[in-house]
Amino acid sequence: VQLQASGGGLVQAGGSLRLSCAASGGTFSWYGLGWFRQAPGKEREFVAAIRRGGGGTYHGDSVKGRFTISRDKSKNTVYLRMNSLKSEDTAVYYCAATSYMFGVDDGANYNYWGQGTLVTVSS
Question: Which of 26, 88, 89, 114 could be cross-linked to 3 through a Cys-Cys bond (beta carbons 3.0 to 4.6 Å apart)?
């Protein structure tokens, strides 16, 4: 499975962005999809995930109420809508695919990773 993330950029605090991650080379519905981020000098952080087969969605505590993950099966694409952005949201955002049904907030459970897209939020 190949994953291609896009949509990052520079945005002012309070603004919005939508990240996209296009998947190819596999059966899209077989995989759960997640977003993780890593800021300079910090550990990778779980952002959001959606279980395979149209299962539930999960969001990290730091983004709940502001970010929303969704998927479009017809386009083999997963999205991360980010609203009310804060400077602390600045990071490289990675999309990933997992064959696991559970533990979707743990990056160790993901089999495939995209290349990352940089989001910079200016205050």
Answer: 114
Kindly give, in sequence order, each residue whose CB lies less than 8 Å from that of residue 69, ignoring residues fewer than 6 positions away: 33, 34, 35, 47, 48, 49, 50, 57, 59, 78, 79, 80, 81
Phi, psi of 52 (to 5 degrees): -65, 160
Nearest partner of 75 among 21, 5, 7, 9, judged by Cα: 21
Element (H, E) at 90: none
For 93-109, what is each residue's pLDDT tens digit? 999 999 988 899 999 99
Q: Determine the Cα angle at 118 with ends 115 and 123, to 5°.
A: 165
CB neighbourhood size of 63 (10 A): 23
Strands, DSSP E only, in 13-98? 17-24, 32-38, 45-50, 57-59, 67-72, 77-82, 91-98
- Which residue, chain included where needed, has tokens 């945005």? 11
